[in-house]
Amino acid sequence: MLYIDDVHFFRCSDTVFSVHLPPDTTLCEGESLTITPTVVDSLYALENDTRSYLWSTGDTTPTITVTQPGSYWVRVTIDGEFSAWSDTITVSYISDFTTTALPHPDTICEGLSAQLAVQVPAGVPGITTVWSTGDTAYAITVQEPGTYTAYTFNQCFAHTDTFRLYTRFCWDKEQPFTTLYIPNAFTPNGDGRNDCFEVVGDNLGSYQIQVFSRWGELVYQSDDISQCWDGTHRGRPVPDGVYLYVIRHTDRHGNPMPIRRGEIRLYR
One Pfam family name from the record (predicted)? Predict the structure, then answer.
């Protein structure tokens, strides 16, 4: 007959464990994230073992709280002799943005139309504009008096711009009146948003636009307001930078309007 009066457990020197971090995370600007590693043991429970931590930030605490974008990892050591490195967590941030209600007439003659538009930062992805009319463009054309609201948002932030439009009876219906919406930047990078320098106008007769480089070279011209510049010259993309435009136009009765000159910024 065999008697067992004691049982002894010995720690193996080839202890195997792994360290895991949460998946990659995207936060809103101003938020923080507390990262806690998970230790997985393949041989025996480690709940009572002494652990030390060394993070990529230099911290030695069991968890860290991050407020900046970047990649983070941690090394965990058990009882001062067994170590394992974690995988990496990448933390990204979505930044806040600003919108600008572009200048527009407060009052128009009955029967005419006005252009209402908001300007959003160039090159910032994921921004959507929805108007109180249901339109989703950055600019809309309206004829009726009233209050119009543009709600612009991304995954984290939202901004509202309000426009008030009045109409009046005009004794002289023939008086010249035109509106041009001219953006100040565009991003011809092929993402389907703001890829063209597009001018929008109301009550126009004739129209001509010319775009020049800073050295005075003509890189684009058109007599058709429905056409836009895609940021190319002779079939090749032009460099990032500031370009100058000159717009000549008349009202619908052929009356010349003041020449419009300005700058357009091209980002890729």
Answer: CHU_C
